[in-house]
Design goal:
about 90 residues, single chain
């Protein structure tokens, strides 16, 4: 990181780590109570309110999905768990 001095570099580094933590807390599917966990828990049921940041993120994801002909897919984690690619004995879909 290019900064005018060590103190500024350290401050910027701390800001970056804080932002990573904020995003992890908000969007992790592994954290109970995160927005993603609430969305997954409500799937097929009641709508979950989202903020502008999340709406923008989902709009970008949708754009990338269409531009990549479906290769960029936020739901791919569901399929990986279902198909269990890590188990060499698992039967993969055909």
């Amino acid at each position: 990181m290019a900064a005018p001095d060590e103190a500024t570099a350290q401050a910027w580094f701390r800001l970056a780590l804080d932002e990573i933590d904020r995003i992890e807390i908000k969007y992790s599917r592994y954290r109970e109570g995160s927005l993603i966990s609430r969305i997954n828990a409500a799937a097929g049921g009641a709508p979950v309110p989202i903020d502008g940041e999340t709406r923008a993120l989902l709009e970008v994801a949708d754009t990338l999905y269409h531009q990549s002909d479906g290769r960029f897919d936020l739901s791919s984690g569901v399929w990986r768990r279902l198909w269990n690619f890590r188990d060499p004995q698992a039967l993969l879909p055909t």
